[in-house]
What we know:
The protein has 157 residues and is of the alpha+beta class. It contains three helices and seven strands. Strand 2 (53-60) and strand 3 (63-74) form a beta hairpin.
Amino acid sequence: MAADVELRTDSADSAESVRLLVAYEAELVSLGVTLNHGWSGGVTPEQLRAPLGAWLLGWRAEEAVACGGVRLLSPDVAEIKRMYVDPSARGGGLARRLVARLESEAAALGAAVVRLDTGRDMTPAVTLYRSSGYREVEDYNGNPDAGWWFEKDLRRG
């Protein structure tokens, strides 16, 4: 259940973060996604820590089961990156909680808008983002692994 997972600030290059990101990449590859730049996506751990961003791990007891980060693209625009929930923790609303917390982190960094991208075949992710208030936008980052780009105005809630 999502309620038994605690979201905590961490580092994107911690051992548990790397373990989850490797699992994320393996899952994408198993779905037939061709990764052009690996799990880091060209994002450095430094970009996912204050004052430029934030990185969260979701902990269930002593095991990290979710991760995600946010980084500033400009003083008022942030981007959610590398959001992943382990299959053992899916189905209880954790992904929705993680998105909401990453949005809060983006707002705390001063962002008025948050953007994200996801793969062409990531239907559950697209559904989550749309139901969380994101609207489809044009490609804003040239990510060759993405097929969808979204944006949400944080000032509208």
